[in-house]
Structures are given as structure tokens and as C-alpha cells.
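Researcher: Please translate sequence to C-alpha cells.
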Amino acid sequence: MSYLLKRIAFYLFTAWAAITINFFVPRLIPGDPVQALITKARGQLTAEAVQSLYVLFGLDSEASLLDQYVRYLGQLLRGDLGLSFTFFPSPVAEVIGDSLPWTLGLVGITTVVGFLIGTGLGTVAGWRRGSWVDLVIPVTTFLSSIPYFWLGLIAITLLTGPGSFFPASGAHDTGLVPSWDWEFVGSVLQHGLLPAATILISCMSGWILSMRNMMVTVAAEDYVTVAHAKGLSERRVMVSYAARNALLPNVSGLALSLGFIVGGTLLVEIVFSYPGLGLQLFQAVGAKDYPLMQGIFLIITLSVLLANFLADVAYLVLDPRTRREG
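Model: Translation complete:
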């Protein structure tokens, strides 16, 4: 319990530090973000309207930096991430809320599936060294060395076009209203197949190689030898003794991967014009939409912290040594 409380305190402090950095970094960037909005209005704003915009975006020159920081913390506690410049006057939380489900559905599912398949194949490959399963490793390693976006471009070139089952871009057919009917769900699945396959092929190899190496190391441990001497079945020794201990490094890797899911796979989303947070971040950087960038960076940071905290909890369950003091 003491270990868990220490980890909670550490993550709360880290979250506060991340929020503070997220506040100061955009204000240290040269330039005036509000000017982009004024330029869009082609100078048709009065001095009072311009001043109102500065106050609205929390950049009031009459307020000290400390006052702006306290106001920013108060906004975050209310769940207010500010207003987007690009989608003005839409709130940043609304813009992120529209894009986040697409990223979670695409990158989240493929990450978990890639972890399960890669860990399973790595377990078998490490336990049965020299078998046919070892042939999978060079193939997946070669495929994972190809960048995400390059695989995406190859897939679009070879598998899309007139009469093809696979769409080249978008998340669903134009004209469809988002709903839970079969037509819309089927369209979403059809549009997500190619980008999902691209991500899955690229990320699966790392899990396979990592798990295989750990299984080779763990298989030589004394407790595995003792389990064999007890007459336990091969499958039970592999799963309950070897794989359970070899899994710990992969749990940490999965936690980091899950944390970065909300950031999307930027280049894949750009290649396939998939409306996730990665594409949204790319557009925000191009438009100098600082509130939207702040909001996305904050969501990514907090997600990584939450995922690491869950990994610590998983360690408590998987490894009894972490539950002991000293």
C-alpha cells in the first residue's frame, strides 16, 4: 500500500509539472497567436474587439503571468481547455472530443491486438527455439523497419483505386450520418482496415522480439527448472512460470504505447486523411492554433501518466516483489 501511495504522489506531482510546462511553453514562443485570428478577419476588428480576444484567450497583457497561470489552472479544473483559433468559436474540448474516438478506435485497437499477437508469438518462439516460429521473426523485423507512412503509401498504391474494396482516405463514406446502424459501422470498418493493417504490421515485430528474448532468458532460471522437476505440464510451465515473469518489460512498453495512443499515429492519419488527433495536431501546428496544441499535448501527457500508473498497478499484481518493503 505504501508503494502505491508513493507512486500516486509521484504521478500527481508529475501531472502538475506537465500542466505548468504546458502553460509556459506557448507563451515563450515568439509571435502573437491572436494576430492570426485578426489576420483572418482582414483587420476588420476594432481595438475593443482585439482586446476582448486577448482576454478571451487568457493572454491579457494587463494581467500578470501569475494571474494568467492561476486562471489557467482554474479553467482546467472546470474542464475548460480554451477556444480553438482554427475552429473559432468552438471550444478545444469539443474539437478534441470529435477527433479522439477515431484515434482510440484505430490506434487503440491495433495497439492492443498487436501486443496480444506479438506477445503470444514471442512466447512460443522463445520457448520453442529453433522451430518454425523463428521464421516469423526475420519477416516481421523487416516489415517493422519500413516506416508507417511508407507502408501506407504502398498499400494505397497497390490496393486502392476504381472498383477496389479498400478506400484510399477518410473514416467513412461521405454523406453518411454517424450512428450505430450497420451501414455506418460497416463503412467505418472498411475505411479503417488499411490504416489498421499498416500500424499492426509495423508495431507487432517489437513485441515478438522483446518477448522472445525475455523467454530465452527466463527459461534458464531455477524456478523454471524446478517446475519441470515437479512434473508440471509443458504448457503450464510456459504460461504460468516463464511467460508471467517474461511479460513484465512488455507491460511497461504497452503502458507507454497506450499512453501515446491519444496522440494518434501522425503520418498514418495524414496519409489516409483519417480524422484523428494526429491529423488534428498537424493542422493545429500549421495554423498556429496554440490553444488546440496545448489541449492535445495536455491530453497526451496525462494519458501517458495514467497508462504508467496502470502499469505500476499491473506490476503489483504480476510481481510479488514490488509488494514488499525494502
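Researcher: Any highlights?
Model: Residues 100-288 form a domain with the MetI-like fold fold (CATH 1.10.3720.10).
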